[in-house]
Amino acid sequence: MKVLTAPQMRDIDRKTIEDIGIPGPVLMENAGLRVAAVVRGIVPRKERLKIVVVAGRGNNGGDGFVAARHLHNDGYRVETVLLGRVEELKGDARLNARILRNMGLAPIEAESEDRWSECRSVLRGAGAVIDAVFGTGLVRAAGGVFAAAIKDINACRGMKIALDVPSGLSSDSFQVPGPAVRADVTVALAAPKICHVLPPAENFVGKLVIADISIPQELFRDEDFRLEIVEEKTILGLYRKRPRDSHKGTYGHLLVIGGSLGKTGAAALAGKAALKTGAGLVTVAVPRSGLAAVARSMDELMTEPLPETEAKTIAPEAADRCLELCRGKDGLVLGPGLSTHPGTARFLMEFLPRVKLPLVLDADGLNILAANPDLLSVLPRPAVLTPHPGEFGRLTGRSAAEVLERRLELVAEFSGRNDVVLVLKGHRSLTASPDGRVFINSSGNPGMATGGSGDVLSGLIGGQLVQDKDVLKAAVAGVYSHGLAGDLAADTVGQKALTAGDIIRYLTRALKSLEDKASPP
């Protein structure tokens, strides 16, 4: 599903009205109807509860007037407050305010902080408050009467239902510029906006409901819309049931290189995840002393011992052996548990420029890359880099805080400049393509913030890559299925107890559910 900016949404509205021929009042009517339907679903006892609509002076307020009318017609007790004067309204909003007045439901006018103070008691006893103050156009912090109203809406005990965007948020930013309504439910009109899907703004949205207001779907297929939230349907095509005449060679052979003293488990986790995601064969190559631990972790894994340093990390002389191991393989995962030992860094610098396989680079592979940025230009293509914010900060010379603050901008820029697919891990992981597209993941939970979770992800992406050969699809699907497995695990074991091993265990259920939906009986 596309995630739109305010200018993109305005352009779609314009095309709907001017090119398709759906009048503005019809779109406003549809929006208000959808909001009223959501309210009916969550506030059923209409004879006992009052609903208050707090409206602004723009079209968002007009949508609120429509919702107020329909809820009144359904038998709810509805009161409407306009943060302004009716005579200031224009166009479709003015039309719907006039309809309310003609029905004997004229909005209470609160054009100033003093006037709001006089009438804010209308919120008392409200079972629900519909926030229709600002829509997608806000670009600065709310102040004056608007800030006062936002504060009192938040203090109200009733449900808070935001119309399109919780007032106080900017639709085009995931930052919170000032006071904002903390909604229980947000009814986004036609499409999600940036503030709906990324923290910290996302924390003010509550449950997100996307409302179809009859805008034709082809208008959302513009190639200039580069931001998309990943849903199940985005990736289902990769999980269709397999042909009867396939064999293990059909689904690729993945090589995993990593491990060091005390960290062989990272390479083993990546290998196990790759097998569970459907790779036909997986070979895990680790320092010689760690081979037995990896081999014991899963019978189906093939293993290879590599020359090691005195610190029991991969030695420089392992480069030639690893190149031999690359022959006949379909993809490479490099980095889980690798360490940044100087000898291992020399191994990587000698090995990487000679690799011809599709690559997933993770963990200490990224840290060595950050210390040797010239390696970026000689990475094999296609390549997927999977940093967390700290690792990405080291790659770009920025702090983790700056990475999080500018994540959308930075991932797109880095991916395009370096011709790599970049997965920035974390809550709402981002997957950026060199062509400028950015995919926001919608699965996962805080319990996945645990050691080894990233190693499982690199294995999932690698395992998907050797099966499907499309690096971007493999990354997007790997991130989503990783989060889905984590969600299923958390439902059973809880978030606190969740481990990377649980993600692998519940991956079978996650993939089975995707397979069943992709290939129904």
Average pLDDT number: 95
Shape: elongated
Low-confidence stretches: none
CATH topology of the largest domain: UDP-N-acetylmuramoyl-L-alanine:D-glutamate ligase
- Rg from alpha-carbon coordinates: 27 Å
Task: Based on the coordinates given, report the CATH architecture of the largest domain.
Answer: 3-Layer(aba) Sandwich
Give the neighbour order of strands across the main sheet: 8-17-16-15-14-13-12-9-10-11
Output the CATH homologous superfamily of the largest domain. Ribokinase
Commentary on this structure:
The protein has 521 residues and is α/β, with parallel strands linked by helices. It has two domains: 6-225, YjeF N-terminal domain (Rossmann fold); 234-518, Ribokinase (UDP-N-acetylmuramoyl-L-alanine:D-glutamate ligase), CATH 3.40.1190. The protein is 42% helix and 15% strand. Strands 8-17-16-15-14-13-12-9-10-11 form a ten-stranded mixed β-sheet, with helices on both faces. It has a seven-stranded parallel β-sheet with strand order 3-2-1-4-5-6-7, with helices on both faces. Strand 9 (253-257), helix 9 and strand 10 form a beta-alpha-beta unit. Helix 2 packs across helix 3, helix 9 (264-276) crosses helix 17 and helix 17 packs across helix 18. The longest helix has 23 residues, at 471-493. The two termini are 26 Å apart. The mean pLDDT is 95.
